[in-house]
Design brief:
- The chain is mainly α.
- The chain has one domain.
- 74% of the residues lie in helices and 0% in strands.
- The mean pLDDT is 84.
Amino acid sequence: MYNLPLFISGAEIGFILFIVLMVFGADKVPEIARGLGKGMRQIKNATDDIKKEITKSAENQGIDFKEVTKEIDKVKEDIDDITGPVKRNF
């Protein structure tokens, strides 16, 4: 299943859906789902537009994302080497 940011299990999602069904009724649930879908699609489109603008601006400035990504990966590896046994498990 999906990795939800709030760590909600399948049973909890089912319970939430049951409560929504009881509160809003079966006839309103499809409308709510459509509204949520449209909202999520708008957010996705907005973030895609922001990514495109950032990429375009970086290309205009002569910034190479591949090089930046390589440098970030190097720093991540260095941090992992330093914090290896000290990491916390959340």
